[in-house]
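Quick one, T. Sequence first:
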Amino acid sequence: MAVTDIERGLSTAEVEERIAAGKINRNMELKTKSVRELIIENLCTLFNLINVVLAILVLLTGSFKNLTFLFVVFLNTAIGVIQSMRSKKMVDKLTLLTSKKAIAVRDGAEVELDLDQIVLDDIIRLGRGDQIPADAVVVSGEALVNESLLTGESDLIKKQPGSDLMSGSFIDSGLLRARVIHVGADNYVAKINNEAKYVKKVNSEIMNALNAIVRFASIIMIPLGLALFASSVSELWDATGAPGDSALSWCFSELLAGRVPSSALLSTVGALLGMIPQGLVLLTSSVLAIATVRLARRKVLAQQLYCIETLARVDVLCLDKTGTITSGRMEVEGTYPLPIEGVGAGEGDAAVPVDTTVLDFALANVARATSADANETCQALLNYYADRPVEVSEPLSVIPFSSSKKWSGASFAQGSYVMGAAQFVLSDRVFTQVENRVAELADTCRVLVVARVDGFTPDGDMVGEAEPVGFVTIRDEIRASAAETIGYFNEQGVTLNVISGDDPRTVSSIARVVGIPGADAYVDATTLDTPSKLDAAVDRYHVFGRVTPQQKRELVQALKRREHTVAMTGDGVNDVLALKEADCSVAMAAGSDAARNVAEIVLVDNDFASMPAVVAEGRRSINNLQRSAALFLTKTLFSMGLAALCIALPPYPFEPIQMTLINFFCIGAPGFVLGLEPNNARVKGSFLTNVLKRALPASIAVILAALLDIFVARVFGFNQLTLSTMCLLTSCASSVSLIWRISQPLTPLRVALFVFVVAGILVGVIGFPELLSIANLSIGQMVILAVIIVFTCSVFFKLATMMDSLKPRRRHAATGFGRGVRVRLGRGGGKVSSTGSTAGRIARRVASDMAQRRDKRTAREAEARALEGVAQAQPKKKKGAGAKRSRVTKSAQGIKVSMPSKNKK
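Structure tokens:
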């Protein structure tokens, strides 16, 4: 292929030829999902499918009042779609704000192009602040390039003719022209993005619990529903079927005649509806959606509802240095004048103000003189002296920074000064005098020396030997809130790891400043050249430097294999793979498009200090949902139990409209109020376990009450309407008891809620008997009902107290080597291996516990036998005689018996 002319660029014909060949810079960035994809994702769920099928069955009966449950389905779907659309709109807006154009040379003229209009071999012009749109090679000019978004390396890289430029990096200073060598999918950025295009499974305990409940209900409801329907049809057949017909043939004849067994179908649908935790799904979506709105006010965008909960459960937080702990800019750490004899005694120094040191004068004025093409170091000095009273002096000559010289300088009426790397500015003799001081300061910062010279040659070289007047230390600008935020996570027991592409010594020094535990121990990831080395390093270090994008992902994977819940923060293309792999990923809005699009949480104001607010929202959501979910799961559990019970004792006592009363007053309203209360307590235990401990007592009480109601109805001959009413009221009583218990300790809001629930149930039962299919009970029936209510409520409180007394399963915290890891130490070194799956570890733990109990029992029996044998062997002594007693003690071999020695006569 012919080399493109630098001055002329590509011709129009050459551009068209490349477009026809498909050699264009197609946008390969990770994009947000389309509106169609978002709607389908929220609409086509197992939960919605089950409800649609049940709605069709209700439609067949013609009882339209029993379709009210579809309102919950609609609301839940709408919340999911609206939240997804809102997140998409925000991310697309951020992407639009950061998109730029490029300048290319075509037909001898410079033209402005969209990034996707660039073709292979285009000559592009790049200057300070420009982002490199495609992989290219420099053909003329020089520049310093910031590749931190790609590599994490904060140091600027010098590029000159022949140097490669990676797409996604930025020009920090200088001007150059480059020839495009890769376009579209062949670009470096596109290759990393392609590795991140797999679908990441959301790691949410609440979502997993809900999905498990819905899946379980969907499996069990088919046989239960068919059996319950058959039982109800059989009962109808007994009452109305023709002699000699079977129940099945009678049902088919009724259907063929256009008569649907409505009562059997409605009772079956009512039972199946109760098995689906509709309100819990809606409550979860609503609580998390409200949390995202609250976070949005704090400039935090949650792109996925359940990520708020995941972050609240995180026990390992991996931080990227550049853009997270640091702002991505440089700052002056301090200035250090040198009291060296002879410095400042020159004739020109007399004009330096008395209240200003020579060092400050030189730094401020050299920075101002070279500000036309200010690099990050120069900009840091300009910011430092912007509000400091240092006299401005007009430069007589200026020597801009050169990557070959490693220094910049200027001449003033007060003298000539240079600043740069000490090794390049000072002679060997002078450098030896200050070498120790430079090494001391370089431990945590980049050190520049400021020296006085006699002047400059026409070629820009120093005249005379440079005499140092002091040092200035430059470091990455640490975010003002970083130390406080990291301190918060330390207090919460979250393990912090810093993973960066920068020099590990620099990363370690910054980590120490902000308070990362174990920051003194660091590792250069270039030495982790095998998977086993990298896996072992996860347990030993908390600071990783020179990490490649692939290694970042592998580090996150290693932590997840240890059963940690891992969060990752980042802003660059080099972070995308790790962000995609982490359980919860957090990106800065000012970072790359790819990082924003794969992250679940985007910090719109680029402030790491917003993280504690996200954790607080997650805690409030989880803790309140655990309390409210007990109400919803109670209905699911007792519906399953009643359905199984009513197969033998048909019909099912509830109609769908009666379940609506329970759903609203006993579950929905209290669940939403309790679910939105402030609650910042630390999350403890498993979500499903905590919920079941509260829901089981109420479910058992409701089933027991229904069984008593059915028994009484059959004994006294109560009709179906009376039975349904009694079951409704006893179920409400058990639910009200549960609300009272989970509302402890009482607050004014909870008292008002309790009164509202009781009043709502009474108004519904007394005021709308026809709508809710409520029977008019006699005095005798009311007395029986009251006795059943008192009995079942007593049973509930007794069972609840027993559940609360159960001690939670002890879990050993994963400190040091982490969960899921086996460490063997020996003379030949250590060996780290996996302990296998969770099921395998549980089985081994149970076997180990049983073996330990067996060993203890054997030891006790052996000890008893040993004591008995010793007692028999000893002669009886008279009272008062000083007999020596044998001792039985435990030893490594089992039981050790120490016999008394015989006294010689």
